[in-house]
Write a structure and sequence with these properties.
heterodimer, A: 174 residues, 4 helices, 38% strand, rod-shaped, B: 563 residues, alpha+beta, 5-stranded antiparallel beta sheet
């Protein structure tokens, strides 16, 4: 069985990891081994301290899977690697062929969808817009009973008023 | 729920048919096509069981198509010979899935292919496929009377089917998972006359009698608490061809064509302060004779004055005329109003989107429209964002009533608010006391307005009033910015409309999209995705992984991965 050990510089959620091969080992499984959480014991002759310092990723070709190295334990002249499968990297080819509903994406978006990730400060932006016009003239309006009004006469003195009243009195007499 | 239906002849799905093998027969061949189940009743002390368990591996392979759950159609062209102890009853049930229906196409032959015993059907037996390719003679069915075919409605497919227990000929048939169970071997001359349809719960309860629930239908008849109506699929029957955003715009109307001044009983004048002084001199002079001129209608010339008021617009004038009190001409010239109503156009402003996102709309954005003589009114951002707002007042110069109409460029007239924009000038003592009372009422109702506008900046007075925090649930309360703004209070207040737009002050960390992505919600192939991607719905088909790994994959995709 071939075990390739790597240094992984990518975050766990990265599908295609950025990895650097450290050493390739060949060996035989001597005991029961999980395909998901394998524990591999290797000799320190082929895996030294320098490897242990940076090794955090592995591939077991026979299992068809990549693995995170979760822990490295030194025991005598052996190293014990505790690993867990990296399902994203192991099945990335099949995964990329699938379609699904993409909830969020880094580069594609629709900003009109409600998004709870945003935060707002307590002080809002306040914009004030004035309308072009307003009430700028003020007028008196007198409302009186009676609709009979006429074109103003040329006379404007008090005598005319008296005569008008006299005319009305005369008319009443008739 | 267990439903018993009475079977009628030849109209519904077939039940399997069981045939007993003559005790004299010690060997037979099996010819089967499709998926089948071979039963041997009384084969062992433990009861009925599948006969293939007694076969050799090779024979089992030959009968692979009859293994439970097998989905490979198998045509056994060289039937194996199976040794079988005499006296055992045998049932063969085989079927193929063809043309969307289960069709039995199997038979049991004894010794030679010329004699066949029994076959069964399950599914829609509308066709006669069970006869095809199989050498079956009805007269050779030693138990043929039991091979009555009963149809069950197609809607029963996938449910449990039970031939009523208690009958010596009862047979329970679970179609789910191809589980078969025969409680009693059928006997000559008997018929199955009723079929019970069971739910999976009923089947479970029957197999788990100690689970605490009495499933006996006679003891606990099922009663639908919601009445007889059974839920049905539905919906989607709208008219998808309509334009859901179609707008048949309402426009700002013209002024009323009918007016109080047209009736001739009221005359309205637009006058200057000087003209009013002349009028006052006239009223307090002794140049008229009450007895001769006012006895018909008025006790005083003052009674002829309906009102003197201040309005904030220039009324529509019809030319100069002398003022008359009833029939007395004062010979004082004033401009006569040609219409009771007047329009004042305040113009338009635009309300642009700020970001172009959900944050530009409610409930994140708040719009407060200040209207003179009316006060502050809330507008829905959904109505006006990305549009223009046009405000027009219609004013009644007689009563002072005003109507501010707000129309948008795209949707037309959407809002109408009413108020009063007249300030009465008291002429008599009675008028004066009334005016004072009105002013007090107006000011007391508008306390918040005075306080808010005292700084000269209405917004500052309500600083921090409305905002949007993290989510909709964190909306701050709305603050009332004004009280009653009519009459004298309105006259003293700000005279132009204005719009106050409160937008959320967003806090966006740098490169947030690399950590969380942005909302997308579209169906897409994952190979087309770059960067952070969160998949909410996906079928993880075709991935050669364990179930544990599949679950882990689903969890990771739901949380977000980086391609």
């Amino acid at each position: 069985m071939e075990l390739i050990l790597y240094r992984n510089d990518s975050s766990n959620e990265v599908v295609t990891k950025k990895i650097t091969a450290l050493v390739t080992l060949n060996g035989t499984l001597r005991e029961g081994c999980s395909i998901i959480d394998p524990v591999i014991m290797i000799s320190n002759t082929s895996f030294n301290n320098a490897h242990a310092a940076v090794c955090n990723y592995a591939k077991i070709a026979q299992f068809g899977r990549y693995y995170y190295v979760n822990d490295i334990v030194s025991e005598g002249n052996m190293w014990i690697l505790h690993m867990h499968v990296d399902v994203l990297a192991s099945f990335q080819t099949q995964l990329k062929s699938l379609s699904g509903v993409i909830e969020r994406n880094e580069f594609k978006y629709n900003t009109y969808l409600q998004d709870g990730y945003f935060r707002t400060y307590a002080n809002p932006h306040i914009e004030i817009k004035q309308f072009p016009s307003g009430f700028d003239t003020f007028e008196y309006v007198l409302a009186v009973s009676g609709g009979g009004s006429s074109t103003p006469p040329s006379r404007s003195d008090g005598d005319d008023i008296d005569s008008t009243a006299a005319d009305i009195a005369d008319n009443d007499d008739k | 729920m267990i439903t018993t239906i009475t079977l009628s002849t030849g109209t519904q799905v077939h039940l399997p048919v069981f045939s007993a093998v003559p005790a004299t027969q010690t060997s037979y061949s099996i010819v089967t096509r499709g998926y089948g189940v071979l039963w041997d009743y009384g084969h062992s002390a433990s009861g009925n069981q599948l006969i293939y368990s007694a076969l050799t591996n090779a024979e089992a392979l030959e009968l692979g198509n009859i293994m439970l759950g097998s989905n490979v159609e198998h045509v056994n062209t060289t039937p194996p010979t199976v040794s079988h102890a005499p006296g055992h009853a045998v049932c063969i049930l085989g079927w193929i899935y063809q043309d969307n229906q289960y069709v039995i196409n199997s038979c049991l032959t004894l010794g030679s292919d010329s004699i066949s015993y029994g076959f069964g059907l399950y599914g829609d037996c509308a066709s006669n496929h069970y006869y095809s390719g199989v050498n079956i003679y009805n007269e050779n069915f030693i138990s043929f009377p039991y091979t009555q075919f009963y149809d069950i409605p197609d809607t029963a497919a996938g449910t449990a089917v039970n031939i009523r227990p208690g009958s010596p000929y009862s047979i329970d048939i679970r179609t789910n998972g191809f589980y078969q169970y025969a409680s009693t071997i059928q006997q000559t001359g008997q018929y199955i006359t009723e079929v019970q349809l069971k739910t999976n719960i009923d089947a479970y309860m029957e197999s788990h009698p100690d689970s605490g629930v009495d499933y006996d239908e006679s003891d606990n008849p099922f009663v639908n608490p919601y009445g007889v109506t059974i839920s049905q699929p539905g919906g989607g029957d709208g008219d998808i061809d309509i334009d859901p955003d179609a707008v048949d715009k309402a426009e700002i109307p013209d002024l009323p064509t009918i007016s109080a001044v047209d009736a001739g009983l009221i005359t309205m004048y637009n006058c200057t302060a000087g003209q009013l002084q002349v009028l006052g001199n006239y009223l307090w002079s002794n140049i008229y004779d009450l007895e001769t001129n006012f006895t018909k209608l008025f006790a005083s010339p003052m009674e002829a004055i309906i009102g003197l008021s201040i309005i904030p617009v220039t009324p529509t004038l019809g030319g100069a005329s002398t003022v008359k009190f009833g029939n007395i001409d004062t010979h004082i010239s004033m401009s006569k109003l040609s219409s009771q109503f007047v329009e004042k156009d305040m113009g338009s402003i635009s309300v642009k989107k700020w970001i172009g996102s959900f944050m530009d709309y409610s409930p994140y954005v708040k719009l407060s429209l200040y209207l003179p003589y009316i006060g502050y009114r809330e507008l829905s951002p959904d109505d006006v964002v990305g549009d223009t707002i046009h405000v027009v007042y219609h004013i009644d110069c007689l009563s002072g009533g005003c109507c501010a109409m707000v129309e948008t460029g795209k949707k037309g007239l959407l809002y109408s608010f009413d108020g009063s924009c007249i300030a009465n000038v008291p002429i008599t003592a009675l008028n004066y006391s009334g005016a004072i009372q009105n002013a007090i009422s107006a000011v007391s109702g508008g306390v918040s307005t005075v306080a808010g506008l005292a700084t000269g900046n209405p917004v500052a007075a309500v600083g921090g009033a409305a905002s949007v925090a993290q989510n909709v649930t964190n909306i701050k309360p709305s603050i009332q910015r004004s009280g009653q703004m009519s009459g004298a209070a309105g006259l003293m207040s700000y005279q132009s409309p204005m719009l106050i737009i409160e937008r959320p002050n967003m806090c966006v960390p740098e490169n947030l999209n690399t950590y969380t992505g942005n909302m997308l919600y579209v169906s897409r192939k994952l190979s087309q995705c770059k960067g952070f991607t969160q998949v909410s719905l996906i079928h993880l088909d075709g991935i050669p992984c364990t179930e544990k790994e599949r679950n882990e994959l689903m969890t990771l995709l739901n949380k977000g991965v980086i391609f």
